[in-house]
Amino acid sequence: MPRPKIVFVIGAGASAEVGLPIGSGLINTIQRNVDIGFNVTKSSKPGPALLTGAIRKKFELSRDPNATFDSWINSCLRLRDGLGQFPLSIDTYLDTHASDTRMVVCGKLAIAHAILDAESKSELALMATPYASAIDFNKIKDTWYPKLQEFLFSGIKPDRIPEVFESTTFVVFNYDRCLEHFLFHSLRGYFHFDENETKSHLKSARIFHPYGQIGPLEWQSEKDPVAFGKSGELDAILKATDRIKLFTEQDRNQTELDGINSALSDADAVVFLGFSYQTQNMELLKTPRAKRTIKIFGTALNCSEFDLPVIEQKVLRSLGGKHPHKKSVFNRNWTCHGLFGELHHTLKGIEHIPRKYGE
Questions:
Q1: Range of the structural domain that residue 285 is part of
Q2: 233-237 — which CB contacts under 8 Å span 24+ positions?
């Protein structure tokens, strides 16, 4: 019997379980780092100094005869001041000021710097072992990542790994690479593969980033890879900036969008982890097939009891069509780790549901 097809939709709350900043924490970090001022050469703060170098490089590459380096700094300082006006999202704020292209670039540079630095300090940062660098699983035992490993690989022989990735799709709305980084070290450690074997198996993993990411890891691409947590390097920040897309930017990878749509259209179940259910995100998840049976589960941590049914309806309109499965479950008390704990047998027991279209 084929494995059921499951799509995991992953938001910022999922990465927060291993220490990456979200919401106001990310905004505060970015605001501090863009506070570079004009006398930057004597700055002792590594964040501002590094961003200054990145901004100068972008200024030089722009070759805009009407711009000066000071005008780029001014855009950066306007970003600093604007972020102090209680925006809920750096992406939303940059989208509001999309006409200020210099501010948008400065904001993306700051996002890239903040994420790379956060990766390097996260619970997924590598430790040295006698054999190879590896994740310290003791640090992440209370997060959802080991639960995912158990869900994917428990009881699976090495020759069946292709079935796992054929039936599982990840749609990641984050710029970070926590999931990819974890899967590589999880697969390698659990099955005792060498690096090449691990890379070979992961080539079939379907992981989509509709808003881009700060760069492919070494196992994902031999061309311009960005190591996990490669903070403090100007080149890594510059490369990452060009790969980040705001939610309203239209130059998306259509092949990737088609892949997301295909996976959702064919899914037996969709699981939302640390997701915010913002309208623009739900628009990306809409599928054209209006009549199908599907199971839907999701975290909604700290959501109010009034918003919970609204979230459910938004999701059902995007994914459920006119005949959603009645077992849709959203819980305002679940963390991502908690969802896997509560739904251990439910997720393992999802049957391959015959879908009926055009009823």
A1: 6-19+125-211+246-348
A2: 234/50, 234/53, 234/54, 234/57, 236/112, 236/116, 237/50, 237/51, 237/54, 237/109, 237/112, 237/113, 237/116
